[in-house]
Write a structure and sequence with these properties.
The complex is a heterodimer of chains A (about 280) and B (about 375). Chain A has 13 helices and no strands. Chain A is mainly alpha-helical. Chain B has helices at about 55-65, 105-115, 120-135, 150-160, 180-195, 210-215, 230-235, 240-245; strands spanning about 10-25, 30-40, 45-50, 70-75, 80, 90-95, 170, 200-205, 215-220, 225-230, 250-260, 265-270, 275-280, 290-295, 300, 310-315, 320-330, 335-340, 355-360, 365. The chains are: A mainly alpha (about 280), B alpha+beta (about 375). The interface between A and B is medium-sized, with 17 and 23 residues. Chain A: Keywords: Cell inner membrane, Cell membrane, Membrane, Transmembrane, Transmembrane helix, Transport.
Amino acid sequence: MARARFDFRTRARFDVRAQPGFGTIALFTFALLYLPIVTLVVYAFNASDSLSSWGGFSLHWFAAAAQNQSVQDAAWRSLIIAASAATMATIAATMAALATTRTPPYPGLSFKYAFINLPLMVPEIVTAVALLIVFAKVKVWTGYSGLGYLILAHTAFCIPFAYLPIRARLEGMDQSLERAAADLYATPWQVFRRVTLPLLRPGIIAGFMLAFVISLDDVVISEFVKSGGQDTLPTYMLGQLRRAVTPEINAIAAAFLVLSVALVTVFFFINRKKA
Amino acid sequence: MPEPAAVPDSRIAVECRGIVKQFGEGPRALRALDNVSVAIRENEFFTLLGPSGCGKTTLLRMIAGFEYPSEGSIRLHGEDIAGLPPFKRPINTVFQSYALFPHLTVWENVAFGLQMLGRPKGEIASRVAEMLKLVHMEELAQRRTDEISGGQGQRVALARALAPAPKVLLLDEPLSALDYKLRKEMQIELKRMQSETGITFIFVTHDQEEALTMSDRIAVMSKGKVLQIGTPWDIYDKPAERFVADFIGETNFLPAAMVGIEAGLARVRLPSGVEMSATLADGYVPSSEATLVVRPEHARVVASGGQLSGLVENVVYFGTDTHIHVRLDEGFTFMVRQQNSRSQSCGAEVGARVGIEIAPDAAQVLRD
């Protein structure tokens, strides 16, 4: 009731939609955002080899991309890295979120927030170069040159993305629920298993989803960290663009787009049901 | 204030002794509890009463184990529990917000404590059924907690806390979210459950009426201190301090001169020069001046005579009774509460000159 009254009063005073030029600016913004993507998707169905001249409708390039072994490998690699990195990042982020919201505030806590979110602030290229140098040394010492480096690097920059929704969920949770569980003879571990974790699930799913998508489309860090023959889908596409460009790249991009949107949608619905 | 020595230690359920809770250090330190001692008897409905910020909830949380005292001891049937975590104390809490688990059904909420204690499934099922029956919630056992009303949530919270048969049940303003009528019903329900289960209830409230109607004994708290412990009758009729008298019910304060003390009764001289006898608060410190408390219903307005006199300033009709505010000749205002009857008016007109007759033994001398 109070809310309805509030809405009414703000609308009476100021409504952004009634401002002159609002519609034009909105249309322009949407065009700017989506026209390039629409063009890209349309040309994925182009029958000719050109990116700029339309040669009729065809699914040829999708078939070509699907049969291309390099594309298959890169896509598979991307999914493995994203799944592993998002899982590890979500676990680490959950622990970090618990530690930063379930202890009474103490000096240095805000410093820890900043520290956890550091990857959001450090320019990606700096992280990439730093990791390149460190991993080069580690490769020499250990002789290992598998996907582990990419997974670790992705985990590191995914943590803050997983952390933010999980922490938000924990902060919004009524702490008397956990107190009530403890009062009813639940040990700290049981409180976590039986109360905190089930209530935190939507936050964890959201965190995982964000981390997964962020990992999936990373270019800069992957480009620096990957060893030979370890192309992810984005770095493969970047590599292709340097050579002969065909609508196959459009087809890959379009498929990638559909996959991302589908993932986000699925997670969104899971989340909404649980919450 | 000293406890009556008649109660043997074995009948004390919870004893808090010399509890101090300090938040922060140095000059900005805040003493939430300042040397609080209370002894709560077995099977007692004990109420911690005071305004918000008086420390009553902090004390309750300490008994539950959510806070630890800076100093002092908390004993449960003689055993020191001050250092035990909440899950090791045979004490359950009904939270102000109820704190029902939103991901569990009513049944699962009530079963939670028993499951954590590792009780066999059959026992849990029968105990939960028994508890749901106690709070009249059998039909809603499979509901989610967001599908029940506030009053029902209150009952579930109560059943959940009672299910493990705790030695002591703590209730943190559990009725404050309910509307007036439901609150009245729950007051009677709570009283019934306490006598049916035989569990010691420690109840926190800022509502003096609730405290008076439900409690066996009340501890009145203010600013981190316990001012008085006693039966509702003690607290209302024999307040020890100005705060207690003022916080509970309406009251008249009169300055008086102490004439003498004889056989436990004080002889005081009222501002009008009339002398009368008055009871003395526990822990009274002798002094030549005294503050006298007279409850408004223990005095009546008379056409002439009485110990005090003045002009009627205001007459307020309340249905069951009428409040008559009299400006005394000495300048103080005195309020009289008179029962209404259908045939008669209260007999006081605004501006009329009246006397006030204080019933014998109705006046009490405060300790401060």
